[in-house]
Amino acid sequence: MYKNYNMKQVTLSLNLDIYLEENDIAFAIDELVESIPVDVFSVFEHRMGTSSYHPKMMLNLILCGYTQSIFSVRKIEAMSKDSIRAMWLTQSQTPNQNN
């Protein structure tokens, strides 16, 4: 089971995409990840323990870090809290490497 992650869900939170430029790399990353068939991610699903972050969200975050030459897990974690681009891609979910 995954934590709730849906790029198409209407929320009342701050609409971060208004802060991104029209040609921002975040839109290309999201389009690339969304083009991957859902069944590809089914191998990562588990039924025991706490719910995990959705693989699409994690891939969005990792690709966002890589496009900014950030390869450290700790720095990507920090970026998820500081970068508007990363916050938009993760829908403000902030993965923690210790969990």
From TrEMBL:
<dbReference type="InterPro" id="IPR008490">
    <property type="entry name" value="Transposase_InsH_N"/>
</dbReference>
<protein>
    <recommendedName>
        <fullName>Transposase InsH N-terminal domain-containing protein</fullName>
    </recommendedName>
</protein>
<dbReference type="Pfam" id="PF05598">
    <property type="entry name" value="DUF772"/>
</dbReference>
<feature type="domain" description="Transposase InsH N-terminal">
    <location>
        <begin position="16"/>
        <end position="95"/>
    </location>
</feature>
